[in-house]
Design goal:
By secondary structure, the protein is an alpha/beta fold. It is 32% helix and 17% strand. The strands form two sheets. The chain has a seven-stranded parallel beta sheet. It has a three-stranded antiparallel beta sheet with strand order 4-8-7. α2 links the parallel β2 and β3. α1 packs across α2. The chain is globular and about 40 Å long. The chain binds 2-amino-2-deoxy-6-O-phosphono-alpha-D-glucopyranose (GLP). The site of 2-amino-2-deoxy-6-O-phosphono-alpha-D-glucopyranose has 14 residues, from loops. 2-amino-2-deoxy-6-O-phosphono-alpha-D-glucopyranose binds next to loops.
Length: 244
């Protein structure tokens, strides 16, 4: 794993955005996996800004959402679809043909997850996967205990995650759906490049466990140690418990 530490979240976000813009300039039909969560807000803000400044077209980029809450309506503020619409898809004017999302309302969620795996394969695989990290070390919605070879599937959210994400659902953890559809860890590991971002002291222990700790299903992000091309973009606070 390559670890890049910058003084503030804004500098990290700017660096992440310039990496992405450079990749799209090089490969205009890049397949990009999009994450949600507060960490991604400045990243997408910078991406929109830098894409305009650099005049790089994202018209041919193909986007895949990382996860979605089960039962979430697109209009729900907390839904991943709503988040991505607001922060990246509308600002970048991405057409519907270029974005794939998991349907949290699918009547057969297992079939929906299988469809998604097929869609990723048909696109030639994910070139760059953006990832945040949960305070408990989750990636996507792969909670502790998720097998490293797991595929896109329905996963049960931990109470810690529902608590952490409650603000996006009106403040109460019980309002947060109990399950989600998520790319599996095995699916994430097939992305050619993973960019893991984390900000703040609240993420420092999870980052240290993922980077320096043993590879264990109890820390889903530690699976990234097995990947040949992972860049961890951290602010000083999130890097504060690293061994180096
Ligand atoms: C959610 C998402 C994850 C994300 C995590 C961290 O649970 N499913 O993909 O990494 O939140 O979120 P935040 O960036 O808000 O701390």
């Amino acid at each position: 794993m390559r670890i890049l530490v910058q003084p503030t979240p804004d500098v990290v976000a700017s660096l992440a955005a310039s990496l992405l813009v450079a990749r799209v300039r090089h490969q205009p039909d890049l397949v990009l996996g999009l994450a949600t969560g507060m960490t991604m807000v400045p990243v997408y803000r910078e991406l929109v800004l830098q894409q305009q400044l650099a005049a790089v077209s994202f018209a041919r980029v193909r986007l895949f959402a990382l996860d979605e809450y089960r039962g979430a309506l697109p209009a729900d503020l907390g839904s991943c679809r709503g988040f991505l619409d607001r922060h990246v898809l509308r600002p970048l004017a991405v057409g519907p043909a270029h974005i794939q999302m998991l349907d949290g309302r699918a009547s057969d969620p297992d079939a929906e997850c299988a469809r998604y795996e097929d869609a990723i394969r048909a696109a030639g695989g994910i070139d760059v996967q953006l990832l945040g990290i949960g305070g408990n070390g989750h990636i996507g919605f792969n909670e502790p205990g998720s097998p490293f070879d797991s595929r896109t599937r329905v996963a049960r959210l931990s109470e810690q995650t529902r608590q952490a994400n409650a603000a996006q659902w009106g403040g109460s953890p019980v309002a947060v759906p109990a399950d989600a559809l998520t790319l599996g860890i095995g699916t994430i590991l097939e992305a050619r490049t993973c960019l893991l971002l984390a900000f703040g002291f609240g993420k420092a222990a999870a980052v240290a466990a993922a980077v320096d700790g043993p590879r264990t299903a109890e820390v889903p992000a530690s699976a990234l140690q097995m990947h040949g091309d992972v860049v961890c973009l951290l602010d000083e606070a999130a890097a504060s418990q690293l061994a180096r």
